Amino acid sequence: MSEDYRSMWSDLGLDLEAHDALLGVLGKAYQDIYLSQKSRPEGMGYFDFVLSTIHGLRVKELLDEKEAGRKVIGSYCVFVPEEVVLAANATLVGLCSGADFAMEEVEKLLPRNTCALIKSMFGFKLGQVCPYLESADMIVGENTCDGKKKAYESLNNLVENLYVMDLPQVKSDQGRALLKAEYDRFRKAVEALTGVSITAESLKQAIQTVNAKRAAIHRLSSLRQADPAPISGLDALLANQVFFYDNPARFTESVNKICDELEERIKEKKGSFPEKTPRILVSGCPQAVPNWKLPWIVETSGAVIVGEESCVGERGTRNLTDDSGETVEKMTEAIVDRYFQVDCAIFTPNPQRLEHIQEMVNTYKVDGVIHYGLQFCQPYLMESIPVEKALEEKNIPCLRIETDYSTEDVGQLKTRVEAFVEQLR
Ligand code: BJ8
């Protein structure tokens, strides 16, 4: 890939040497973690291709779209409504933040005890290695956790086009009103950026496009209820990760194609793991590309992951937006209703998340939950304790893990996960 796209990366201002190093590590990790899996659905070939050209083909497509006058908007959070972006004839891409980069430089701007996701956000900018970030006409930050909120103040000095969205912290009428006001403000900002006025027609179309990709992911998730699991957790996570930056229509089609194949596998009782393999739900912080550490550990320790209670997973995708309104105002209300249900740990109190975890345990016939918390992530680490307590009261084993993006603790984590899986047998 590298030879074909070097001039494009150079034009985007990437540091080619550092970027080569990043792609080298990414390619090796993908080979070792993904391509070494046994009994994968053939349809995963599409996602292997997407990953093999992660900084190439899709970036080229975005630049071609920009050439044709379309704008690209980058986001770090599932609260940024893709419907609004698409309706203004722009494209939304997730800015992944799933790997350490340029840490020495990062720690000159952020305290050491900042979560790996936020550090990664800065590392990709300071290291000049993310073509998505460099292609974006607008970068949206959001006032979610304290770390992100304050980090955007510093990120504002590194990028020219940061837009910060305020978000509620309480699921009250006032909280909903704030979200509505912020989505109205965002819609106007996107219209100003693109020069396109959002109409009822364009918004309805956008809602349907995003609903279709969510529905495809719902279909994939529901097929993971089967035993033997027809797809590994690693592969399902990859589909959830690609959700954030692929072309929406192509993504929907590719996921549905895998689902057709999984339905056949289920009929034939063909699994990615043998029947009765212990089934794990991973719950907690988002796992952005290329953060595959925990699922790799779990699935090489005798268990299979059958669900992700995460923003790169069911927390991010689970509800559709009602598209029945006939005006922009009515549909914006529906968008607010849909996103206001996202049960991120930044909300207080946040009982819906616990209910959702318990619901997922039942739906996916889970044997044990692994709570995944990034080190220094106060919201999820704080919630992990009541989550563990509530699950244990229902005799559902729970393992709380606190980690970062380094590989230093892999041996120690593997020992803990293996012991946990043994207990589930
Ligand atoms: S809606 S989960 S994507 S904010 S890991 S940066 S919480 S200290 S990512 Fe998130 Fe939106 Fe919520 Fe989802 Fe802070 Fe924790 Fe770091 Fe985090």
Give a verbal description of the structure.
There is one protein chain. The chain is of the alpha/beta class and 425 residues long. The chain is 54% helix and 10% strand. It has a 4-stranded parallel β-sheet with strand order 2-1-3-4, sandwiched between helices. It has a 4-stranded parallel β-sheet with strand order 6-5-7-8, with helices on both faces. Strand 1 (71-75), helix 5 and strand 2 (90-94) form a beta-alpha-beta unit. Helix 6 crosses helix 7 (116-126), helix 10 (173-194) packs across helix 16 and helix 14 (293-299) crosses helix 19 (410-424). The longest helix has 24 residues, at 200-223. The protein is globular, with a radius of gyration of 21 Å. The N and C termini lie far apart (44 Å). The structure holds Double cubane cluster. Double cubane cluster binds next to helix 7, helix 9 and helix 18.
